[in-house]
Write a structure and sequence with these properties.
The structure holds two protein chains of two kinds. Chain A contains seven helices and no strands. Chain A is mostly helical. Chain A has a single domain, classed as Orthogonal Bundle (Globin-like). The chains are: A mainly alpha, B mainly alpha.
C-alpha cells in the first residue's frame, strides 16, 4: 500500500496535534484492545492487565513512540522500524491479524480524544498509515 | 447451536472415516509450522524446527499433531455439541497455553488443504464447504471460553 503525499501530510498533522499525549493514547488503545478483543491478552500473560496498570501504560507508550517514529520517517517506515520488524519476526511473532485490531483501537482512541481532527480524509490516511506499519512489522515473518 | 444438514454430516463423517489421524495430524501441524512460521512460538520446547525437513522429521511435532487431530475427532463424534465438548480445552488454551485463537483458524485452513491433497477429486466443493464450516465451528468453540 502506498501513502500519497496527502496521506503523509494528514498523518504528520495528526501526530503534530497529538504531540506529547501520544503515550497516553497508546496506553488507552492497548487497554481497549484487551477489553474488546480478549484473545489479544494471550500475548501478555506476564503483564498486570487491570485498569490503570503501569505495565499497560508503559507498553502503550512504547507502541505510541514507534508510531511517532514511523510518522516522523513516513517516507521510509520500513527503515525506521527495521529493528522492531526483526523483533516481531524473530521473537514476538504476534499473529498478523492483531495489528489490524490494534490499528483499529488506535483510530478509536484518536476519534475519542480528537474528533475534529478525524475527518473522513484524515481517517482514511491514518487507517492506511497504521496498516502500513502493521505490514512493515510482519514483513519478515516468512 | 450449530445446525448441520444431513448431507453435511454425511460429508464430514464419510471423509473422517478415511482419515489416518496420526499421519494427517502430523502433516497438518508440520505444515502449520512451515507455512506460518510464527506459530512456532508455542513450541520452543520441541527442539529442532529450523527447516521444513527438520519440522517434518521432528517426532514431537508428529506426536502433537496426532494429539491435536485426535481431539478434532471428538468434535466429529459430537457435531451437535461441539462447544460443550471443547469447553475445557478452550479454557486450557486461554488460561494455560495462552494461544491466540487466530491459530485455530490457521490450523483449520491447513487441515482443509491437507484433506484436499489426500482426497483429490473426492474432496468435492460440497465436501470442502462442509469441512470449511467444520473447521470454523471448531475454531469458534475453542475460542468460546476465552476471557
Amino acid at each position: 500500500m502506498v501513502l500519497s503525499a496527502n496521506d503523509k501530510s494528514n498523518v504528520k498533522a495528526v501526530f503534530g496535534k497529538i504531540g506529547g499525549q501520544a503515550g497516553d493514547l497508546g496506553g488507552e488503545a492497548l487497554e481497549r484492545l484487551f477489553i474488546t478483543y480478549p484473545q489479544t491478552k494471550t500475548y501478555f500473560p506476564h503483564f498486570d492487565l487491570s485498569h490503570g496498570s503501569a505495565q499497560i501504560k508503559g507498553h502503550g507508550k512504547k507502541v505510541a513512540e514507534a508510531l511517532v517514529e514511523a510518522a516522523n520517517h513516513i517516507d521510509d517506515i520500513a527503515g525506521a522500524l527495521s529493528k522492531l520488524s526483526d523483533l516481531h519476526a524473530q521473537k514476538l511473532r504476534v499473529d498478523p491479524v492483531n495489528f489490524k485490531l490494534l490499528g483499529h483501537c488506535f483510530l478509536v482512541v484518536v476519534a475519542v480524544h480528537f474528533p475534529s481532527l478525524l475527518t473522513p480524509e484524515v481517517h482514511a490516511s491514518l487507517d492506511k498509515f497504521v496498516c502500513a506499519v502493521g505490514t512493515v512489522l510482519t514483513a519478515k515473518y516468512r | 447451536m450449530v445446525h448441520w444438514s444431513a448431507e453435511e454430516k454425511q460429508l464430514i463423517t464419510n471423509i473422517w472415516s478415511k482419515v489416518n489421524v496420526a499421519d494427517c495430524g502430523a502433516e497438518a501441524l508440520a505444515r502449520l509450522l512451515i507455512v506460518y512460521p510464527w506459530t512456532q512460538r508455542f513450541f520452543s520446547s520441541f527442539g529442532n524446527l529450523s527447516s521444513p525437513t527438520a519440522i517434518n522429521g521432528n517426532p514431537l511435532v508428529r506426536a502433537h499433531g496426532k494429539k491435536v487431530l485426535t481431539s478434532f475427532g471428538d468434535a466429529v463424534k459430537n457435531l451437535d455439541n461441539i462447544k460443550k465438548c471443547f469447553a475445557q480445552l478452550s479454557k486450557l488454551h486461554c488460561d494455560k497455553l495462552h494461544v491466540d485463537p487466530e491459530n485455530f483458524r490457521l490450523l483449520g485452513d491447513i487441515l482443509i488443504i491437507v484433506l484436499a491433497s489426500h482426497f483429490g477429486k473426492d474432496f468435492t466443493p460440497a465436501c470442502q464447504s462442509a469441512w470449511e464450516k467444520m473447521v470454523r465451528v471448531v475454531a469458534h468453540a475453542l475460542a468460546h471460553e476465552y476471557h
